[in-house]
Amino acid sequence: MGRARWRGRSGGCECGCGCAGFSKSKVNAGILQKTAASMLPFYRAVATSQRFAAMWSRAVVTANLKSMKKLLALVAPQAARQGLGTNGIGYFVDFVFPKLVYTNGTTIPPGTVQFVFEPKVHQAIARAVLPLYSRLACDRAFACKLAIAIRRGNKRLVNLLVRSRVHTPALKAVQIEDEGIALSFKYPFSKFKYRNLLFRDSFFKRRRRRRRLRRELAEE
To answer: How far is residue 167 CA from its own chain's centroid?
Structure first.
């Protein structure tokens, strides 16, 4: 398996798929590769350690960003240097690029429940997405194909590429959202749906998340 090559020229492409000609303000292979490579050790830790998964879930539902940052730094130092947020039912890691912010995270859809994040479900999702993030991190051509499919709104190709790496029947839907992808999971041992997200974030979306969390904390 080759090394991830996201340290190359920003927006550049060495695989000949044509993605180099697109603006740096759009999602490209380099953005997907850097995000995936940075998050990969975290997903491995969640997938393989019940203790880590339980500690992470506890930090999420208590909105303990200090604890989340510490746990992330233990297993994925590159991801820990990024922006980090929680809504009490999930988490978001923000990667800042020159002309955009790209976010990765897992959450229960807002409005479903408050302060729940099940370690068993999170572990199952981490195991399911590991092959996808590993392929993105290490395969420039695959990352280019996915980036181009996202930019062109090619739902069929995005679904095909994601499902070629994520094989669990718990994956109920793959959607293009906010210049990224949203993977919806529903496991029989949980009554809640979960979403694993890779998307372009904005200042206004991050502000809305923070406002929602403050409101829910106040209601609690």
So the answer is: 17
User: Distance between terminal CA atoms of the chain?
Assistant: 48
Which stretch of 62-66, 71-75, 202-206 has the lowest confidence by average pLDDT? 202-206
- State percent of the chain over pLDDT 90: 79
DSSP assignment of 131-198 equals HHHHHHHH-HHHHHHHHHHHHTT-HHHHHHHHHTT---TTEEEEEEETTEEEEEE--TT-SS-EEEEE
Q: Among residues 16, 184, 188, 218, which one has the least CA distance to residue 90?
A: 184
Q: What is the DSSP string of 21-89?
A: GS-TTS--HHHHHHHHHHHHHHHHHHHH-HHHHHHHHHHHHTT-HHHHHHHHHHH-HHHHTSEEEE-SS
Name residue 163's beta-bridge partners.
none
Amino acid at 139: D
Identify the CA nearest to 198 among candidates 122, 157, 147. Answer: 147
Q: Are 218 and 112 in contact (CB under 8 A)?
A: no
pTM of the model: 0.86
Which residue type does 160 have?
L
* Residues ≥6 apart with Cβ < 8 Å to 164: none
